Amino acid sequence: MVEKIIINSKEVFITEKHHHNLIPWSMQRKSNTNGIIVLSLDEHLDTRDPFLHFAFDHTTLKYDEQKAHTELKK
Predict the structure, then answer these.
(1) Quick one: which of 40, 41, 63, 68 has the most CB atoms within 10 Å?
(2) Same-domain pairing of 38 and 50
(3) Could you tell me the residue range of the domain that residue 53 belongs to?
(4) What is the 3-state secondary structure (H, E, C) of 1-15?
(5) Is residue 49 domain-shared with residue 14, that is, in the same domain?
(6) Cα gap 15→3, rounded to integer Å
(7) Do residues 17 and 41 make contact, with C-beta atoms less than 8 angstroms apart?
């Protein structure tokens, strides 16, 4: 669930599921008065298909870069 390693004398917690980060975050927050840094590398493949749907021109059946840009601005 949560793996703890030490890198350059810093505690680093590695989790596979982002909601598992709440466990070490809450433990560190209680004991660390200097604050903590949270870095999340998270890929959401579930958002790719809906985005591509919005960025797809159904008349030409091609990816539309302008449409993608417009959707990202929203």
Answers:
(1) 68
(2) no
(3) 43-74
(4) CEEEEEECCEEEEEE
(5) no
(6) 6
(7) no
pLDDT over 80 (residue 34): no
Residue with tokens 């505690």: 11
Task: Compute the distance between CA of residue 12 and CA of residue 3 in angstroms, rounded to an integer.
Answer: 8
- For tokens 């008065």, the residue is 33
Q: Which residues in the chain belong to E strands, given as ranges? A: 2-7, 10-15, 56-57, 62-63
Distance from C-alpha of 54 to C-alpha of 74, rounded to nearest angstrom? 12
SS3 of residue 63 by DSSP: strand
Who contacts 3 (Cβ-Cβ below 8 Å, separation ≥6)?
13, 14, 15
pLDDT at position 7 is 92
Task: Name the residue type at position 4.
Answer: K
User: Which candidate, 10, 67, 71, places its Cα nearest to that of 37?
Assistant: 10
